[in-house]
Amino acid sequence: MLTPETINILSYFYALGNTPAVCLTQSLPPGSPADILLLGCGDVRNILFTSHVDVHRQLDLTCCDFQKAVLARNILLLSLIIDDSGPQCTKILWGLYYHFHLDDNCHELLRSQSQKLHSLSDTMEAWHNSKYGPVLKFCDSATLADVRTMWHFYITSREGSEKSHFEAHFNDNLEETRDIEVDLKSRARARRPNPMFVTDDGPLLHYGTDPLLGFHLAAAYAPLQAQSRLFTKSVSPKPQQRAVETAQLEFSNWVDSFSKRLKSVTIRFFSGNALAFSHSLLHRRVNGGSTGNWYRDRYRAETLKLNGPEFTSGSAPLTFDIIDRSNLCDHVGGLNLLTAVSPLLRNCASSAVYTEILHKRSESPQKAFDHILCGHTPTVSLLLGLFPVDYWTNVLP
Ligand SMILES: C[S@@+](CC[C@H](N)C(=O)[O-])C[C@H]1O[C@@H](n2cnc3c(N)ncnc32)[C@H](O)[C@@H]1O
């Protein structure tokens, strides 16, 4: 199918999320299993936070992002949590996932884990039979191949001009971002560029990347009881130091919870365009077959085929209790996405589609709704079969 397309000259790599973590199951009745679709999934914060606060629920999360580097770094982190956890390990995971420079230990861990994942992912079958297969799954073989190229990128040793080229690219990436090196003494040996903050195919790290944005920092300034899981002993007068310690503690709590509930979580990954993925899921449900002849993304002539083992066997979910669209409507248009995702929502009163907007284009939330829906909200939502709860219950600010 040929359709008009504009070339996206400037695209960014969102290694870290820029909004605080949310509980994806907040609208669901307690206890029932949840199938969740994350479109433009970004980093792992929403997955870890949800599995931390909603401990007793069986979670099946399908994560789609068109940036393979986002998926590769997420899977690497989750695989390390599956391997082991403990206070020491969590500190290293924090360094690996959030710091732009690594010390020798962290760098060696990144290399050895990437090597391990690369060798386990030779084929779809080998991956699904590996230690990580029961929790971390791939929707199609092209996604597996995509993230493998990133793991290979992480283990590549660079010398001479290749090394200087990589370092120059890395520094370009970091030009506008800020690191959170509050403990300069202990971080003094972290000199190696962290390759998990670059992509192998061009897009620059987003200028607003800030490791603290994904956390809930109020606990850094509130007088908490010592028994609270968010209590830190810090007496530092420096607000930034307190914020970093709170974020690290929250991350450590998330990792701890996730490592204890591996049997009740399944995470599926797809790298490609959110619209193509949504339409292909619907096509699979309605017509069967692995492809609806969509391209995986708009810049590659590669057909999207849902050929992962669980799609072939029919055990992967094709309808969802929750669909989270991040702020994709700022990128691809609200109505384009809603028409693609609303047929995927399970027909149940508690099912919900979440969306965020970060570009303020309207002077009131009511107008923002009209803008997202490209028309009169009550009429368009009726046509879509969706019910904008906040709009009708008057809880909009
Ligand atoms: C919309 S972006 C913005 C950052 C977001 N507010 C967050 O905190 O993660 C979130 C993710 O969507 C991905 N993305 C953007 N456009 C996409 C598309 N058309 N299909 C799939 N993923 C997309 C980006 O790679 C990024 O990882």
TrEMBL record:
Protein's name in the database: Uu.00g132810.m01.CDS01
Superkingdom, natural source: Eukaryota
InterPro entries given in the database record: DUF4470 (IPR027974)
Lineage start: Eukaryota, Fungi, Dikarya, Ascomycota, Pezizomycotina
One protein family per Pfam: DUF4470
Domain called DUF4470: residue spans: 16-101
